[in-house]
Amino acid sequence: MLGLIYDVHGNLPALEAVLADCPADRFLLGGDYATFGAWPIETVERLRRLDAEWIRGNVDRWLVDASDAPEAVLPLIERSREMVGEELSKELAALPVATTHGGTLYCHASPLSDMDSFYPEPQDTDAERLMGVEAERVVFGHTHLQFEREGPGGIRLINPGSVGMPLDGDRRAAYALLHDDGRVELRRVDYDWRESVRAVRDAVGDLPADRIEQARFDVR
Predict the structure, then answer these.
(1) Taking the CB of residue 66, how many other CB atoms lie within 10 A of it?
(2) Cα–Cα 20 to 30 A to 207, which of 92, 167, 198, 216?
(3) What digits encode the pLDDT tens for the residues 52-79?
């Protein structure tokens, strides 16, 4: 059994809740580990204690190269760099972008990009995102929207959801299990999200705190 953990974003209380709930003893870590969270270093240290394979997310890359980041998050990235430190920033940015095991391709957003991803409803551009993919299944994150559906060519698309910052209206931490028989189980876990909102607001800023609080990308 493999635990699929994506988009923790330095939210240690959410990660601890997921790990307490998760029966897996091996993990695939799908990127976006520390940035925008109140516990970036502690989160990475906790993940290092797992038997896990790591891949890189876009905000891990932004710790070194934020040239394509939206202007609104540049101050948050700079704050995260200060909290993470230069050495760990470089380490996270240097992680591999994808890995493939047993007919499953694991990436952050899509096989061709760490920012252009799939959504719960099919899109005309899905076939472009899967161009050249021979895997039976693609596991990805980035949008913080937990779902499983069939994509073009019968390829199964799986988003485990976000551990630290769900954006589907459900504040509970999200992750998934890949069972030995190939079955995927999407799971949610309660945790004290109010504690995380307070800590993130104080340590990083209002935008990530509001997203945790409202479980929405377009916060008001």
Answers:
(1) 18
(2) 92
(3) 999 999 999 999 999 999 999 999 999 9
CATH for 2-214, among 3.40.1000.10, 3.40.50.300, 3.60.21.10, 2.60.40.1180?
A: 3.60.21.10
Report the C-alpha gap between 82 and 186 in whole angstroms: 34
Backbone angles phi, psi at 60, to 5 degrees: -65, -40
Rounded Cα–Cα distance for residues 110 and 167 (Å): 18
Torsion of CA 11, 12, 18, 19, to 10 degrees: 150
Q: Domain spans of the chain?
A: 2-214
Amino acid at 97: V
DSSP bridge pairs for 188: 174
Beta bridge partners of 178: 2, 184
Give the list of residues 6+ apart from residue 181 with CB closer than 8 angstroms, or none.
none
How, if at all, do strands 156-159 and 137-139 pair? Answer: parallel
107 within 8 A of 133, measured Cβ to Cβ: no
State the sign of the Cα–Cα–Cα–Cα dihedral 9, 12, 17, 19. Answer: positive
Rg of the chain taking only CA atoms, in angstroms: 16
In this structure, are residues 109 and 25 in contact, taking their beta carbons and an 8 Å threshold? Answer: no
What's this model's pTM, rounded to 2 decimal places?
0.95
